[in-house]
């Protein structure tokens, strides 16, 4: 499906390296701040969590909503972004 | 019952039971998996509900009148065995297998009394609520067993009917159509008691709650059910049950109402909050058969209250049930409640075994308290899940702050009121016994005269106070604050004829009194001090007494004014702070921009300088406006003007490698910048120029099969100069993949244009991606 945002495409196009967590699709300033406070300051840390949940989008969405005040759309976007990244690079 | 606190392994295995392979359960993933487990259980229940509805209707048709219990128990024993370990939502997963089928049987049993199919739903939902139900149910069974002195206990299965009877009792709604059935049930329950099916009993009770709710006539049952289903999903529910409950409570005629909520509460509540409220409600109920439940309350509490309304009959059995229920409640609840419950139990009925039952019940109850503690931990686990994020923390504190502010406001109001009142009421006015005139007064007059004088003065004082108060409040009928002597005389005579003689005397005494007696005397002109009775023209009160509304109004106004002033001051301070912050932030931003600009200028100048080194045709300086125009977009020039100015100033002051001078360019004078740093030694190192093409999915590598990568056309061997250019290339490659230590070997083939590189298999993709699209700069 081509309904991915520019951010999504940017993220998935290259290895995430040391990108901050706000580079993830669906994660803006507020969520990024909230994640950083909890220790998820880099995108790869969030990736780690995603992988811990066995790349399950649904579980990842639960987790993200728990940990931050993310809404469904944001969580879905983020999960999709990570999933695509994993498909490309893992 | 084993600990309801799920360990990681248990969570893991339970998730596996649902056919799902979970990842590792860590502290991060734990809440997520708990939620998943909850969802699985919900789905399971939904399936069961669908199945159960069918079986429920079939069972109800087959039951006869005399011993429906047996029938049901039989049916229950053949009922469906749970394939899964537990069907309770989330909180306790470690119930023994024996309990769960019983529990389920009990709920099936509940379907029996010709209830609508919805009941099934309700029961399952309610069952799903807390694990404490299990423990409490057990206790309930035990409690009922202990009451065996009242009820003969023929067989174990009859305990089921006991529970049944309890349920029936609850369903005993005078307006309900099932009254006949429940009467019959009540009869049947007499010989009932049992231990073995105690769990069944207790589980039934839970179901019965739903039954009785089902029986609720009309509206409350319906929306309540829906509410309950909604609230089950949440840990802390705030249902508007209070009003409903109160209405229900008032309908109760019997004492058992007080006890039943306890029992119900015990069944339902495993939560501390719940228990506290329950306790409160119970005390109220025992007092006045009304439950003053706080609005926020889990649904089970409300269920209990509903049952309160259901019981229309003062039944001996009912009371016993209630007693046992309350015992259970006391058992289930924290130890601190124990003491409170026993006194509530004792006034409830004159039954001798009441007191004995609690004691008995406490024994087995102690071991049941343990589940509540781990339950709460589990609750806390979920609570942690639902903890408000940092964003809503402020909202939480804001609400608390508003609450305290409101309380303070009302407190202030009260204080102001009191102060007003204090100022209004004269000191020691009501008692004529004490007077400020001294002992002379006492000695010079007889008692009756003294009384008359004092009474006169008192009435005068009061009258003046009222006049003054009314005047102060702005009422029209009292135009002036003080009364003339004639008016005073008139008034006093109207009060009492005896006063006539003593008016002058009392006035004289007022003058003589050294202290303020609440009346001020003045002469012809206002504020003249009078020394003699004859001079008195005006009398005024110094302690005006204002009417209540006036006082209140004034108090309110005063408080509001003060609050307003405080608020204005606070607002000013806040606004000042905000403004200062804003300015500071702006400053920071601009400084950052300025430094950024400075850096860019330096870069431009440096590159220009280096270019000039090679190309002698170029002028070694750059005019400042030209630099600006090349760095700043036309649309931004206006905005960045200030920043640019600051950058220029900074450069001229702080940058030593750039010299500002004036040059003539094409006939016009320009301020120019000259880069005066001598060029650094060129290291001739390979440099990556940048990306040749954007990197996206098309260019992403498929999963590569080999650990080798080959780079072609990276360099031209003919063009390379120097001895160690191959090393330079290798270094460039390594540098590019500096954080990727997957490279095992690099070899530069000098003859061809290729570089071969061996990379560990897992990293091939990432290494590739690092390089692809990059171009090597050849020096």
Automatic annotation (TrEMBL), chain A:
Record has Membrane as a keyword: no
Major location category of this protein: nucleus
UniProt keywords, alphabetically: Nucleus
Subcellular localization(s) per the UniProt record: Nucleus
MF GO annotations: DNA binding
GO cellular component terms, A-Z: condensed chromosome; nucleus
Biological-process GO terms, alphabetical: chromosome organization
InterPro entries on file: BAF, BAF_prot, BAF_sf
Protein name, per record: Barrier-to-autointegration factor-like protein
UniProtKB/TrEMBL annotation, chain B:
Biased composition (Low complexity): 45-64
Statement: the UniProt record of this protein carries the keyword Ligase: no
GO CC annotation: nuclear inner membrane
Keyword Membrane: yes
Membrane topology reported for the UniProt record: Multi-pass membrane protein
Protein's GO biological process: negative regulation of BMP signaling pathway; nuclear envelope organization
Biased composition, class Acidic residues, residue ranges: 176-186
Pfam families hit by this protein: LEM, MSC
Main location, first listed in the record: nucleus
PROSITE patterns for this protein: LEM (PS50954)
Name of the molecule in the record: LEM domain containing 3
